[in-house]
Design goal:
By secondary structure, the chain is an alpha/beta fold. The chain is built from twelve helices and 25 strands.
Length: about 475
């Protein structure tokens, strides 16, 4: 395994696995003993934001005159892209900083750190014990995003808000690093990072739960140690409507409401209306949009790409869409957006976000998932939340010769595997969502300017679009 390539010498020590409900004694909070890991990304825009955050933290530390913390950019620690899932990189961090660090703080590019307050906060927690600190989030109902964990009482399990950061004491960090090296860890899908990290740390009750730190501020207030800024930064005027091509994947049964007779149940069922929902909500914000189906339907209209409809993945259809995007059949634009017919998306917000990215760069943007990341797997952009590809990325992928192993292979995963093989990073934005609003923490999602949600066939799609995606006063500049 790739982790074994690092030659390390570790000194492991174990702290209490209790929930630390009593007020802890005073601990160490020397800045030189603090390692701050900025969860940066390889894409040039995100790398620059990471560098800016690092410089700001180091400058603030210099102004305090109490020593400098170690500030690391996650994307620079190794060439392995799966480091974004944090657990694979813990042994490396322990090997380098395990004997000198008292605390490891993980923040996002947009997380502000107020060092003098953070010092005072960390002094409350003795580092010889195991501490997992953050601002607590919880599910209000069983969630598909979290594999319906704690379905009897989803509020009982807390996980940290990644926007304001979370911290591990040295004792806990080193034990986790040992577990990762010594155990045969389950490694399948990585979906919601901090929830899965919290589960790993909790270890079915053998490890510590998250300890809530009120100074990790989801909403700005006095005496914050960390603060969240904005996932939708102002990078200038939005990308032009005329520079985005939208591809909607559909099939005949979702073109309109229609009855379907189920012989097993001996009753007629109504097929959900998907394309009409798209037309009544977000289609009007697109200049270039095409529906791709298994039949040609002039009333919509749809285009039949000659790929049979499949009930599982849609790899064949997606590759046909990408080939069409590069052909003369459609206008030559910088950005391709591929969505399902049950995706709700805010194109005005997407246009504002895309201003931050260089279309000449190979960009694969959306909600990032991972597969087999503990065993050198790959990342991919989830299809339901929308896959945003630069023309450069599409061209590189198709020219690489990478292809579907079958028409019904999962298109998003195949694209992720292909991009990984040619060195194109999967760029994550938490504004895209594979599931419905109720599947995410309400505390966190209400502070976002979300770009997409998925699976609108089981909810009121117009209400979801109106409540979560439609701006009251849209700025829809050309």
């Amino acid at each position: 395994m790739w982790l074994m390539a690092v030659n390390w010498s570790l000194c492991f020590f174990f702290g209490s696995a209790s929930n630390h409900e009593d007020q802890p004694a005073q601990g160490s909070a020397v800045l030189e003993e603090l390692v701050i890991v900025i969860q940066s990304q390889k894409n040039s825009f995100h790398a620059q934001r990471g560098y800016q955050r690092k410089e700001k933290i180091l400058q603030d530390a210099a102004n305090l005159g109490e020593g400098l913390p170690v500030v690391l950019l996650l994307h620079e620690l190794s060439d392995y892209e799966g480091n974004w899932s944090i657990l694979p990189v813990l042994p490396l961090l322990s090997a380098i900083y395990g004997e000198s660090a008292s605390w490891f703080l993980f923040i996002e590019e947009e997380t502000m750190v107020i060092l003098h307050v953070l010092q005072n906060v960390l002094k409350r927690y003795p580092v010889q014990e195991e501490w997992f600190l953050g601002q607590r989030l919880h599910d209000n109902k069983p969630s598909i995003v979290h594999h319906y964990a704690f379905s009897e009482d989803p509020t009982s399990f807390g996980y940290p808000d990644p926007a304001v950061g979370w911290a591990l004491s040295a004792a806990l960090h080193q034990r986790l690093a040992e577990r990762i090296q010594s155990e045969n860890l389950k490694s399948d899908f990585t979906i919601d990072l901090t929830h899965e990290i919290a589960l790993f740390i909790w270890e079915e009750g053998r490890g510590p739960k998250l300890t809530t730190v009120p100074e990790f501020c989801t909403e700005t207030k006095n005496n914050c140690a960390t603060k969240f800024t904005n996932y939708l930064p102002n990078c200038g005027n939005p990308v032009s409507k005329n520079n985005i091509f939208v591809a909607v994947k559909t099939c005949e049964k979702y073109h309109s409401v229609r009855a379907y007779y189920n012989p097993r149940r001996r009753q007629s069922l109504l097929i959900p209306r998907r394309v009409p929902v798209v037309k009544s909500t977000w289609e009007k914000h697109a200049v270039y949009l095409e529906y791709y189906s298994d039949v040609t339907d002039a009333s919509i209209p749809t285009i039949n790409l000659g790929v049979p409809n499949t009930e599982r993945g849609h790899c064949g259809k997606t590759f046909a869409i990408m080939r069409r995007f590069l052909s003369e059949a459609v206008p030559k634009v910088d950005w391709l957006v591929i969505v399902d017919d049950d995706t709700l998306i805010s194109l005005p917000r997407l246009r504002r976000l895309l201003r931050c990215y260089n279309p000449k760069e190979a960009v694969s943007l959306g909600e990032r998932y991972g597969y087999g990341l503990m065993q050198n797997g790959y990342s991919y952009t989830t299809g339901g939340g929308g896959m945003v590809l630069s023309r450069t990325a599409v061209s590189m992928l198709l020219s690489s010769g990478c292809s579907c192993y079958s028409d019904d292979a999962p298109d998003d995963m195949v694209l992720g595997r292909c991009f990984t093989s040619i060195g194109v990073p999967i760029t994550h934005s938490p504004l895209f969502h594979q599931a419905q609003p109720d599947d995410y923490s309400g505390t966190r999602i209400t502070l976002q300017h979300s770009i997409s949600f998925h699976k609108h066939w089981s909810v009121d799609p117009v209400a979801v679009y109106t409540n979560w995606l439609q701006d009251s006063h849209p700025k829809d500049e050309l």
